[in-house]
Amino acid sequence: MAVVAGADFGTLSVRVTLLDSEKGRLGTAVAEYTLHRRRDDPDYATQSHDDQMRALTEAVRGVLATTGVAGEKVAALAIDTTGSSVVMVDENLQPLDDYYLWCDHRAHREAREITERAHAVKLEAIDWCGGVYSHEWGWAKLLHWLRYASEEKRAGFATALEHCDMVAATLTGVTEPSKLKRSVCAMGHKWMWNPRWGGLPSEEFLVWVDPLLKGVRAKIGGEYLTSDRIYGQLAPEWAERLGLRPGIPIPVGAFDAHWDALGAGCRPGDVVNVVGTSTCIIATAEKAELVPGVCGVVPGSVDPGLTGIEAGLSAVGDIFEVIARRAGMKVSELAQGLEAYKPGQTGLLRLSWDNGDRTVLVNPELGGVTLGWNLVHTAQDELFAAIEGTALHTRIVLERMAEHGVPVERIINAGGIPQNNAVLNQVYADVLNKPVLVPDGTPTSLGSGIVAFAAAAVFPSIAAAQEKLCLPFRTYEPRASAAAVYEHLYKLYRKLYFALGTQDAVAVPLGDVLPELRRIAALSRAS
To answer: Fewest CB atoms within 10 Å of the CB: 178, 304, 425, 490?
Structure first.
């Protein structure tokens, strides 16, 4: 019997779970931190590294206290974090500014320039990230920071770090850029790193994008490793703060959604929708299949022995929260009674672009669109239409993946929202016309615990730890009548998605959309 800790940094909080190799989850503690937004700049989203580390300390000590487990009994600690959350640091690895959080979209101009230059020189790396470099990703955010930071801060710049690498470096006492390790998961998906072309894009290419990037490639150095490797050992200072034993192994980190997929039992042939504030759609495969418009295909991410594939929606839970907030309610309150809704009964069709489009259009300049409003629609109607809209968007993504050779044999809804929203799970099953599996319990931070067990050599592999610790599933079967209604809605959604979301789209007739929504709603209500 062994006990490990898994820490999962999300957008608003960190969740720390203690796992027993025989009993499974012993307990979980959560600590929050502040997300800094600006009303005058909706693209702005930052977070403090110090706030996050204080929250980690609170959560670790909290779970030790509630479970009664002695800190010296914890054999390993594994960390996953948000991806595309980037911090610029000085030569002592001290932050020069707060993190550009994943949902900070200020770098859309920089991303567009990188994409255009990459296609101009036929840079192979751009094909491996779906043909479009995202405004959420590392090079775009670093270039934006270099353009707008003060001269003093630019002069002090030593390197940039993804969230998971910064936390691991802090906990293991690394204070010099030369001693850094970097996550293949993070750098492959967000920084165009791949050993196939010698690691990062060339110095020549980066300087052509902007001379401010001269010499920066050499600063994004370190040892690039998959998550079956050890980053280092817990430093005495942090062991004392956390209440753990110094020297325990900390494996190389990864992204929260990727390890959530591991915790949900992801294997080749599965697609895992990690549904939270946004949705990350995760799959693994034995070999690489490039998919246009899909965020990244990276050998060694998710499961170090496979190729990881990532796509997603830029907002899901955030959309639900905003709808409820406008109504002066909590989502849980507004959702009361949604189980009585029938497919398409609202007559609303809602595109989930409130925070731009992550996949497959990769366009931050899109905004939310809802068609079909009348004078008696309610906030609850909009919430149901938003659930339907995110499911319809997910179908576009999954069809794109399947068209390019990614097997979609099982669909798993993981993350926090599916645990508490049976309506969402049923709608997804009906829209996708496939069974949707949901872990029967809380899978969040289970993935980091699985990696911690492998790091402590309690299990011989990640797969062996999954076999022992992953939860059984509840299954939501598609209903034939509902799937038939959603087949009609999907045709309308798909037409609108590409017509409104693509700048140079071929003109398509849209005059049938509103009458068809009314027809579908009337039939649904009458059934």
So the answer is: 178
